[in-house]
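Re: the request from the purification team.
They wanted to know what the chain is likely to look like in 3D before they choose a buffer screen. I agreed to run a prediction and write the result into the notebook, where they can find it.
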Amino acid sequence: MCIRDRSQTFLVAPVGLGNAQFEIATTADACIEGSVSVDIISVPEEFVSDSFSGDSFDSSIWQTDQLSFDASGIAKADPDSSVTTVDGQVVIHVEVEQPAWPGLGLFSVDSYSATADEPLTFEIDRTSVDFVLAAGVSSESRTGMWVRSGDNYVFFVDHTTHDARNFGWRYNRSPGADDNEETGNGINIPAFDGGAFDNRGNHRMKMVLNGATVKLFLDDVFGTEVDFPFANNLTFGFGSYADDVGPATEEGEIRGNQTTGIFDNARILGGSIPFEPPPVVLPPVPGGDAEITGVSTDGANLIIEWSGSSLLESATVNGTYTPVAGATPPSTSIPIGDGSKFIIAQ
């Protein structure tokens, strides 16, 4: 098989400034198409962690957004359209007053910045989506997450249809290559086609920004990476949107399509937790005046002047120290090899 669009994350424990080397191995029957990229990033801070407990959302973190996905769209007023918190989840319900694509959302009060070394991550559970098809099976719904910087945006969305069309998980982006990408049906993400992704149920949505691109993930599966060269004044949001109206009632009341998106467990990560080198733990030193008094080189050898009963070496500063073979004071010659070596006298 060939590995395509796979991402793995692992933690590297830092010991100090310097260089590092990574070796990547695969099984004999595996192949890799294209190049393998390795991003080394700082351990991020947790800016926001919200499980939406209580009877309303936290207005110090989130603010209501009524921006339509299409300039003409208008949602019905509360209570026909509303943002509520029910049983520890945010319920965003929208009914169309005037098409197309009015909606409601919650957006972060604070804005953030992203760089290659300190990327930003926004993730949230889109627990479920429900709908009322006033206009029949041609109706459409959108539930998803946003990043915005001014008028620029990426909208990662479950574009739900109810007829032979199957839009599924897509993204819209502005500026985009064309109208379809910006405000149309959006660009399909093939990695999320079919299967459990299309069950309108609970899925963990995630976007990772580095100031140049946005990576989109669903249930920790990588979907796609799109250009988004905006690093500052970034805000994150999530919301529900409905497209059209159906026939009016006998009393002339507008009957709009309805979309209900339910969301939970939002997190925003970014920045960097300050690096603190681990404490140096050396083996116990018995009484005496053991010390290294001088270091010099002689060709391919390191000459160590020292006193004490033994000379110890380790490949890491906190590692296991073992005696240097043949070492006797007051001078010992050690071949200079590759990598690091830590030496103490005792």
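For the purification team: The radius of gyration is 29 Å.
Please add any questions underneath this entry.
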